[in-house]
Design goal:
The structure is a homodimer of 526-residue chains.
Chain A: H1 26-33, E1 67-68, H2 71-76, H3 83-90, E2 100-102, H4 107-120, E3 122-127, E4 146-151, E5 158-162, E6 167-171, H5 176-183, E7 188-189, H6 202-208, E8 225-232, E9 235-238, H7 251-255, E10 264-271, E11 273-274, E12 278-286, H8 289-300, E13 308-312, H9 314-319, E14 328-336, H10 342-354, E15 358-359, H11 364-387, E16 390-396, H12 401-423, E17 428-437, E18 440-450, H13 456-473, H14 489-495, H15 498-511
Parallel strand pairs in A: 2-4, 3-4
Antiparallel strand pairs in A: 1-2, 5-6, 6-10, 7-11, 8-9, 8-10, 12-14, 12-15, 13-14, 13-17, 16-18, 17-18
Helix pairs in contact in A: 1-11, 3-11, 3-13, 8-10, 12-13, 13-14
Chain lengths: 526, 526
């Protein structure tokens, strides 16, 4: 029973982000810790997988070759990759490990696994590549006979490409690079690049309403979806492939964002695009972050749809090495598969200049590349700092433009105060704007502070609660693209209209009559 | 009790489209009938409102001044404005008239009316301006104590405008022109112009997922919606104003398209835009309709997002007077609030030329205006022909590009055969493409044939059934932007994934425990 981990291939870290071989060595962790005053002088050791309680159920014989009970597979499927997940793994806490990890190879395997789980009261936690940062893949209940982690990674094929309609039928378990590799021969791309791209799957993106890398226009996975196949305990749901339809509430929009609570997405027809051939980018600096945000607002309302419109506030700009001295940096980028984009970039720069920005003459591409590479490296650095008991985590949101200045100030003031109170030192907050809409931006905050060894998770949970309170009070969403999972339930329960909660609970009860699908996520006791 | 009809203002037709004073006089009906061989020589008389059965319930005293029981109000709220509705009214069939017509002036009126209806088992049919062409506002059940038509037209205000975020809070009963009038002083427009614009409301657009006039990008009402307030029998649902959010399945997307079955939309924050200042348009002709569709596909996949990309097939082009001799006509238009658009129009024309089109040197604006004016006049002509017992109706759909040629041929062949068989003469089918997406178009078919007096509705119902069968077999949606109502149930029930139906029924049962909200629409016996 070793269906999951193959020792001949490059190893994923079971406790931290990404590839094991990319994890920071101890000396780099120590060096990095110099950035955060007050940390211990030695890293937490990289953890060994200790004893796990024996599985509480036997896998059914008919599915045995799809199911693993090995400690490495069970450990690797215990948590997602939030800061608090990494810390708990570092401290050797694997009490929440699933009893079984299933690796279905086909939709009928998924059907059989759900049938079996329903009959035996076994909780099913759908699992793509485990990049959840909201407790989305971690069982926390106690009302089930056992827990099955349902890992879709063996279902990773692009099954069909329609070159007339520019769409592709893709299995839910395909990781980002894997599906792009399969689309490349056609000249296509899904063009959906979340930060987790290497270690997240199409199914995960769909189930969590993932936001892509691009700032405007069709960047959300929702908008790239043509149709879905979803295995529910009461049957398989398949929506028709339709470019648009006004026939009732959208079936796909109910499953998008359902986070494994209503069914298991097994495949989807996705709208793909020709690969961009024309790209241009630049940076604009601002001495006043308020001006910078107003410039971003102007850009977002001008109908120019930049591919990149990422504003780094002074702290974020300093950390990324793109500017100092209290300057904010706006990264602007334009892309097209069809036509030159320089004129559009020039219009964007003009707009930003009108709002007090200073365009840099050169280096737009290098700045974008530098940003992107530090962006992709960030989770490994996070893990290195986590081993030094630093608190390193993010929270992201969206609000309307009329609220953003006040929200920004409130987060700095109130979350800053909470950090000080909880950790005893001020820590650091930085902010970037990742997505922009005509009616509002999506600010993304990073928190870095000194934790106390053994208290890291508790301290972060308190800071996070303070952050959720500030967001909620300003009616900013508890998450723009990180999903709800279990960690965001307090904010989500406050934000979600109660009649919609009534409808969602009823839909859940009807589709999942045995209550086995990802219990505690979105609805029910968390 | 005359809350509804005010005799001092211009009169809406109770039996047909729009303004009474725009209805065709008898001699024009007769002249028009020359277009359709085989019609009677005299029009059906414009109907008088005959005796109506007395209301089966007394309105509650506390709501009496919000409720009308006058025959004109009850007659005007009996049907929508489908061909079959007009014909039944012309033939004096008002057996489905609601017992009461309510005109709430505030959300609390709506709450009180739903409470009262729930307690007394009175069916509630939410009513905007009654432009449904799918039986969406017509009660057909027999399990309720009485029927209340809930007319939102007194709630027609733009309540608030946020000029920073470019959004407006608008009451659901506002007709198109009324809300545009209120936005104009701000330089804003909702820029949502369905054909029914003059005689449909924001709430109706939201409840039916209306498609606007524009061919690409943000044209559906869904995408213009920032947040919704909905009165359900179990409480008021209000989503937060958010430009984007990944917090669970979208609450708004459940209510969008719910067609009054889950609640009554009372107001919404809508994303508004600056009024366009730059416009350019032109026409391109094609000798081969297949080439024309391929040109439209190329345009839709080029990332140019034309405001107008309306393809008229040879029949449609001939009827509208824009081309003859078997030519198809593509109307292309580009708009922007910010910058000149001529370059973009030139790119579009180049693309169309590459696919065999011939650009006309002049007259784009005139052609667009001519099209638009005949488009808005069409429903009045339809009513004139209906009085001559002609069958004049449309059906619209959407499908992926890989299916469109085959679907187009199948509709002409099979629906054409059905018309011949049912009416005894071939009739006419024409087609236009109204909306385009990278992965497919939305074809819109018109049928004109000679009906037999007294049998018009039955004949159309048979033709429509044949059309729905063809659409379903080709997995083309039963409706792109006309909603489901009661008339589209056979096609909708076939198309909707069964697990989604299970979820929707459960949500409905939870939100509408007394089963009073628009019974027979979307779910339940139709």
């Amino acid at each position: 029973m070793t269906a999951g981990v193959d020792p001949t291939t490059r190893q994923r870290s079971w406790w931290g982000w990404g590839w094991s071989d990319q994890a920071l060595p101890d000396d780099e962790c120590v060096a990095l810790a110099a950035l955060v005053p007050g940390l211990p002088d030695r890293p937490l050791p990289t953890p060994a997988i200790g004893e796990l309680a024996p599985p509480r159920v036997r896998p059914p014989a008919s599915l045995a070759d799809r199911i693993s009970t090995t400690p490495p597979d069970r450990a690797a499927h215990t948590y997602g990759k939030a800061y608090r997940d990494v810390l708990r793994a570092l401290h050797g806490d694997l009490t929440a490990a699933p009893d079984l990890v299933a690796f279905p190879r086909s939709e009928s395997d998924v059907v059989d696994l759900l049938d079996w789980a329903g009959r035996h009261g076994v909780a099913v936690v759908p699992y793509g590549a485990g990049s959840s940062v909201v407790g989305g893949v971690e069982y926390r209940g106690d009302g089930h006979a056992a827990v099955l982690s349902l890992d879709l990674s063996a279902m990773d094929r692009v099954l069909e490409v329609d070159t007339v309609s520019r769409a592709a039928r893709i299995q839910a378990g395909a990781l980002g690079p894997m599906l792009e590799d399969q689309l490349r021969p056609y000249g296509y791309t899904l063009r959906h690049f979340p930060q987790s791209f290497e270690f997240s799957t199409l199914g995960g993106w769909l189930a969590t309403r993932s936001g892509g890398h691009y700032a405007t226009l069709y960047t959300h996975i929702d908008d790239l979806t043509e149709s879905l196949r979803v295995v529910t305990p009461v049957g398989v749901s398949e929506s028709w492939r339709l470019p648009g339809s006004g026939a009732g509430p959208s079936p796909d929009r109910l499953f998008l964002g359902s986070e494994g609570t209503l069914g298991v997405i097994t495949e989807a027809w996705m709208r793909v695009q020709q690969r961009p051939r024309h790209k241009a980018s630049t940076t604009v600096t601002f001495t006043d972050v308020t001006d910078a945000m107003d410039a971003v607002r102007a850009v977002s309302q001008a109908g120019l749809y930049p591919a990149n419109c990422r504003l780094l506030d002074p702290g974020e700009a300093a950390f990324s090495g793109l500017a100092g001295g209290g300057q904010s940096v706006l990264l602007l980028g334009v892309e097209s598969a069809d036509r030159p984009v320089d004129g559009r970039l020039a219009e964007l720069v003009d707009l930003a200049r009108d709002h007090g920005g200073t365009a840099r003459a050169h280096g737009g591409d290098q700045a974008a590349d530098a940003w992107r590479s530090s962006f992709l490296r960030m989770p490994y650095l996070r893990d290195g700092l986590a081993r030094m008991s630093a608190i390193v985590e993010t929270f992201e949101t969206a609000c309307t433009w009329d609220r953003v200045h006040e929200l920004y100030r409130a987060v700095y003031a109130e979350v800053g105060a909470a950090i000080n109170e909880i950790t005893g030192s001020p820590g650091v907050i930085t902010c970037r704007i990742t997505h922009v809409y005509p009616d509002g931006p999506a600010p993304y905050f990073t928190v870095i502070a000194a934790g106390r060894r053994g208290r890291e998770v508790a301290m972060w949970d308190e800071i996070k609660a303070a952050a959720m309170e500030v967001l909620g009070r300003h009616r900013a969403t508890v998450t723009h693209h990180h999903a709800v999972g279990r960690d965001h339930r307090p904010g989500y329960d406050r934000q979600r209209p109660e009649p919609f909660a009534v409808a969602l609970r009823a839909a859940k009860a009807a589709l999942d009559p045995y209550g086995v699908l990802n219990p505690g996520v979105l609805v029910g006791p968390s």
